[in-house]
Amino acid sequence: FQGVYKDLSVVIDKSLNYYEVAKVLNALELPMLKDTYPVDIYEDEKLGDMKSLTVRFFIQSMEKTLEDNDIETVMGQIMMALESECKAELR
To answer: Which fold, 4-90?
Structure first.
């Protein structure tokens, strides 16, 4: 079945590196989340002690064609984990 790529941009503490964020994502054990990788990391004076991180996710089901609500559920679980574990804010 065809998968989809979704990007998510969050603002996180400058001291966090992508490895720490990836550990949180890998701990989710979401069966439809097949791959994650960083796309962009951006820092500037306006963000202060924070930085912007864009992560690309590949979401796919081996059982069916994904519907919008399937994708939204996975992305919601990802965002909740990033908010609670990394204090991330949606950019």
So the answer is: Alpha-Beta Plaits (3.30.70)
- Predicted TM-score (pTM) above 0.85: yes
Q: Do 38 and 57 meet the contact criterion of CB atoms below 8 Å apart? A: no
The 3-state DSSP class for residue 8 equals strand
The whole-angstrom separation of Cα 32 and Cα 6 is: 12
pLDDT tens for residues 64-79?
999 999 999 999 999 9
If you write DSSP's letter for every residue of 10-62 in order, what string do you get? EEEETT--HHHHHHHHHHT--TTEEEEEEEEEE--GGGTTEEEEEEEEEE--S
Q: Residue 55: exposed, middle, or buried by beta-carbon count in 10 A (0-12, 13-18, 19+)?
A: buried
